[in-house]
Description:
Layout: H1 26-32, H2 37-54, E1 61-66, H3 73-89, E2 94-99, H4 126-142, E3 147-150, H5 157-160, E4 166-169, H6 177-185, E5 190-193, H7 201-210, E6 215-219, E7 225-229, E8 236-240, H8 251-263, E9 270-273, H9 286-298, E10 304-310, H10 339-359
Parallel strand pairs: 1-2, 1-10, 2-3, 3-4, 4-5, 5-8, 8-9, 9-10
Antiparallel strand pairs: 6-7
Helix pairs in contact: 3-4, 6-7, 9-10
Protein name: Phospho-2-dehydro-3-deoxyheptonate aldolase
Enzyme class: transferase
Keywords: Amino-acid biosynthesis, Aromatic amino acid biosynthesis, Transferase
Amino acid sequence: MPTVTTPETDRVSDQRIDRVVPLTTPALLHHELPLDAPLAAAVLTGRRAVGRVLDREDDRLLVVVGPCSVHDPAAALEYAERLRVAADRLADDLLIVMRVYFEKPRSTVGWKGLINDPGLDGSGDVNTGLRRARALLLDVLRLGLPVGCEFLDPITPQYIADTVGWGAIGARTVESQVHRQLASGLSMPIGMKNRPDGSIGTAVDAIRAAGVPHVFPGIDFSGTPAIMHTRGNTDGHLVLRGGGGRPNYDAESVAGALDLLRAAGLPERLVIDASHANSGKDHRNQPLVAADVAAQMAAGQRGITGVMLESFLLPGRQDLDPTRELVYGRSVTDACLGWDDTAEVLDHLATAVRARRATLPTRA
Length: 364
């Protein structure tokens, strides 16, 4: 049978590209939505505070808490207003950072997040998504909350990273050389999650790799292709999220992870993700995970420097269904804790910090 050709298959390049849309430059987006001097100072203060907690110069607990992935900026901002009140009330014991994730990593298919699909309909209006994401980050900063993001696409940090106080490389990308290089040049502390199969050694390797200088292609502030020469990120740390059908937040797993860090010559600092495999992907188990972690802290475990929680205004999750209106304040990705349960968990963690503080030797 003869081969059927079309104008597309006759091309040398772009045979599978449907269309190309110009992308706004980072410089233009920053001009439209600037990070003014007071907000820039707040970002720097937040990053330094996170670093001090990770290094145990500050005996508080870092808590990164918020929606699995933001789909409704208005609901996310209402959540931020509630979180700001809790952060103020618990400031002596917890350093609360709002989880403001915009890129949803996918094992197969599904909604990819607010930046890639702000219309929640597959239209892929990335320029609008970047604007909405940056606008929300600025709004959260104006409330006085540091923000945390996972970095998935290696280009998007130029658009939003100046607003971020804490960052993460996710379980699906922690083995990627591209993401390790990216992390080596980012300006905030970066948590490396263990792989979905539960491998911790891969994340430890990622912390080591990101901690040294790299040279790689990227884009600069003007959107021009450039060669990036990084200095290395010495604020890398390990995030335990479970995997391979097993949790890894228990005391034995924590001790084993700290041993791996010690053997690699890395700082012994852990953040425990109470969701994902640690909760068996059931949001109702997150308080149980947090309670176990709190008990370890109260017993004097200092290697646990942070906790992550997936939380939104309402508990659970919902599907994206074009035939039905979405429920306001409920996740469209992973199921989240509702606000009331979140507030209880935060109080419990703060109590554990006070108990751990009591186990430390007093300074003369």
